[in-house]
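Entry 14. Ran structure prediction on the chain below.
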Amino acid sequence: MAKRKSKGDTELSKLDFRVKVLLKEWAGFSGFYGYKSMEFDEILALVNTNGWTTTIDASDPSVRIVEMVKEDTVRKAKFSLDDKGRALKNY
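Output, structure tokens:
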């Protein structure tokens, strides 16, 4: 018998996937290379180098707030789940 994921796990994985895609996009903007085949932890370690500081706030299980800072450059994004379970980018 196949094991099924619960609906909550699927929705949280959607949020984590959106954050992973965003970090890859920001890595490209920041001049990093080799990030396309990396996993989440490797990308996070990569974007925390060369003076960049990246934080991911997951204190609320249905919201992810991502912030990447280097001197005067600040990048922010917020993802949340809507009532249908979709991961949406708020800003």
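Residues 7-29 form the longest helix (23 residues). Will compare against last week's run tomorrow.
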